[in-house]
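tokens incoming
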């Protein structure tokens, strides 16, 4: 048998049981993430441990990227008596506002070892470019 030593966790568990929210998120969950620029793309890495790739949904509408994922309990059944439950499960969601300079038509996502990596290329029109100066006949004077 495992022993619980944190009295506040026990209070949370009892509150969840009393309110009928046990087994689900009773408060908003934050999906930890890193965001950085790598070459000509922005990269967003989100921690989603214990979530299967099939349970992840990524949408982009206008300039809003939404990631939703669901982690289900690892054990279920009539013959299972939970002794200790500290791992959270339920629906996780994270929204990120994307700049207009990103190419949302070419977003790519990979999922490996519990980390969802979303790569968003910078739009061609937003990349820095060199402007060449044409040769002219020199200065013109305007009389008027």
């Amino acid at each position: 048998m495992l022993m619980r030593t944190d009295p506040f966790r026990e209070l949370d568990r009892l509150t969840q049981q009393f309110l009928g929210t046990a087994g689900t998120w009773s408060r908003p969950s934050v999906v930890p993430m890193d965001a950085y620029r790598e070459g000509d793309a922005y990269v967003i890495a989100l921690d989603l441990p214990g979530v299967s790739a099939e349970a992840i949904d990524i949408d982009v509408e206008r300039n809003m990227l939404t990631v939703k994922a669901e982690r289900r309990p690892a054990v279920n059944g009539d013959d299972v008596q939970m002794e200790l439950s500290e791992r959270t499960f339920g629906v996780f969601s994270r929204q990120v506002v994307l700049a207009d300079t990103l190419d949302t038509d070419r977003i790519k996502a990979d999922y490996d070892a519990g980390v969802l990596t979303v790569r968003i290329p910078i739009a061609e029109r937003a990349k820095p470019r060199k402007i060449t100066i044409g040769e002219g006949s020199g200065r013109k004077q305007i009389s008027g």
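note: The CA atoms of residues 24 and 90 lie 5 Å apart.
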